[in-house]
Specification:
CATH architecture of the largest domain: 3-Layer(aba) Sandwich
Shape: globular
CATH superfamily of the largest domain: NagB/RpiA/CoA transferase-like
Number of domains: 2
Number of helices: 22
Strand order of the largest sheet: 1-10-7-4-2-3
Largest sheet: 6 strands, parallel
Bound molecules: iron/sulfur cluster
CATH class of the largest domain: Alpha Beta
CATH topology of the largest domain: Rossmann fold
Distance between the termini: 79 Å
């Protein structure tokens, strides 16, 4: 049941410029992504507009997340104590490999030995570590139960959005997948038909499979509880019906107090899907006889998050509550879709998170996958200054590539020119002379040589003005008018 095709992994995926070229050529995908992001953005704007205290809420969200990250060690230990007291078992995983090993062992212990299977509720953390492939390698079948994740799994595809993983598919494409994979040649194409087919397909699994794997939206230190929000009720089924529940969460998911939910549960649904609140908000704390799973395990995974925390400028990335508002607002994501990012985290958050979670050289084109327009910062419900982190990471990339790489040399030269007015004027004069053979009759340059060609591959360049403002001003001054 798990996909066996290639996964979105920065170590093996093509770089962003190469992958983006492919997706830019897919007009259907671009149409689907544009339509879906527009619908979500409009809904978000409407419900955010209803909140007179939205900016104060954003500020509170930011403060809560910053405080949690600044005291992460303290709150993680508090979570462990309270979770254990309530009957949960906490496991610590340094990286994805360790997390996968722990989950696989737990499933082998608890699932049916003849036919080991798990039902899953959407989890970006398990996507991040490619858990399904590890389970499959261990002979364990994993069934995604979130509708969009199910579409991705049955379509042998990869997620392209944090909140709506199948956003790049339209209704006809989903119908084709269901017809083929569920053997339903007569299936209609109304949303109701598709939802009914998915419901029938999944219901049997909810009732049969005795082990579930979930992610977590939040971990609450004060109570040792876990929170998941979702829209379809599949999560509620996974969290309550099976005998064993295994939750995999990044250590950054911690919230200090139960009361903090008041803020984040207002910010998240509005920013994510334009809903005032999520239809299903599940909170569970340990185990209780006769109520829900008998065994509860939490795998707290670092996977480079403490390294991000140690970076003074990059650490604000960990404040993210994975709402994807930045993705929907990003003009680059809206054109390329998610797969071009070569990582399960796409869009602006992917452009800053992936290079920090991975070794930078595997994702060094991602900090450049942005126009730095600031739309992401404007919509982020916890005020992460994504453009600031992008520039910080670009600096790191330039430094990592050594002092002799073309970008570093170009920046050095630009720095030397901008430092001196004389050099700046000389460069302007030289630029005018150098561009002359390239300027077309219409005053535009359609082609530049060498590395500069990257600019004109996708846009034209206006010729430099015959006279700068400074030159005009000086002349005007001499004439006295
Ligand atoms: S960076 Fe901000 S806007 Fe983007 S997913 Fe995270 S919380 Fe949402």
């Amino acid at each position: 049941m798990s996909t066996t095709n290639s996964v979105l992994d920065p170590k093996t995926s093509p770089s962003f410029p190469i992958a983006a070229k492919v997706t830019l050529g897919d007009t259907q995908l671009r149409k689907n992504v544009r339509h879906a992001t527009e619908v979500i953005q409009n809904k978000r704007a409407r419900v955010v507009g209803e909140m007179p205290d939205w900016q104060q809420l954003r500020e509170s969200g930011k403060q809560i997340r910053e405080h949690a990250m600044a005291n992460l060690d303290y709150y993680l230990e508090e979570f462990e104590r309270n979770c254990t007291r309530a009957g949960g078992v906490v496991h610590w995983a340094r990286d994805g490999e360790e997390a996968k090993r722990i989950v696989t062992e737990l499933v082998k212990t608890h699932a049916s030995p003849q036919n080991p299977e798990v039902i899953k509720i959407k989890s970006m953390t398990t996507e991040e570590i490619h858990l399904n492939l590890a389970l499959e390698a261990a002979g364990i079948k994993a069934y995604e139960t979130d509708l969009a994740e199910l579409i991705i799994q049955l379509g042998h595809d990869q997620p392209s959005h944090i909140v709506v993983p199948a956003l790049h598919k339209n209704r006809q494409q989903i119908r084709e997948i269901f017809q083929r994979e569920m053997n339903l040649p007569e299936l209609g194409e109304k949303p109701q038909d598709l939802a009914d087919a998915a419901r029938r397909f999944l219901r049997e699994k909810f009732l049969r499979v005795n082990t579930a794997v979930s992610g977590a939206n939040f971990l609450i230190a004060e109570t040792g509880g876990v929170c998941i929000v979702e829209s379809e009720g599949n999560g509620r089924m996974c969290l309550t019906l099976p005998e064993t529940l295994i939750t995999v969460a990044g250590i950054d998911k911690i919230l200090p107090r139960y009361q903090d939910l008041e803020v984040v549960l207002q910010l998240l649904p509005r920013s994510a899907t334009g809903e005032r609140m999520n239809p299903y908000n599940s909170l569970w704390t340990g185990v209780r006889p006769g109520d829900g799973p008998k065994n509860f395990h939490v795998v707290l995974m670092d996977n480079a998050r403490t390294a991000v925390l140690a970076d003074g400028e990059g650490r604000q990335t960990l404040n993210c509550i994975r709402c994807a508002a930045c993705q929907n607002a990003c003009p680059v994501y809206r054109q390329t879709g998610g797969h071009a990012y070569g990582s399960v985290y796409a869009g602006p958050i992917g452009a800053i998170l992936t290079p920090q979670l991975q070794q930078l050289h595997h994702a060094q084109t991602l900090p450049y996958a942005s126009s730095l327009c600031g739309a992401c910062y404007e919509v982020c419900p916890v005020k992460i200054n994504i453009p600031e982190v992008l520039i910080h990471l670009r600096n790191k990339v330039v430094k990592q590539n050594g002092p002799l790489n073309p970008e570093a040399l170009a920046m050095k030269a630009a720095g030397a020119i901008f430092k001196s007015e004389r050099r700046f004027r000389a460069a302007q004069r030289l630029g005018r002379i150098a561009e002359t053979p390239l300027v077309g009759k219409d005053g535009w340059i359609g082609w530049l040589p060498g590395m500069l060609g990257g600019w004109t591959q996708v846009r034209d360049l206006r010729e430099m003005p015959k006279e700068t403002f400074r030159e005009w001003w000086e002349k005007r001054g001499k004439r006295g008018n």
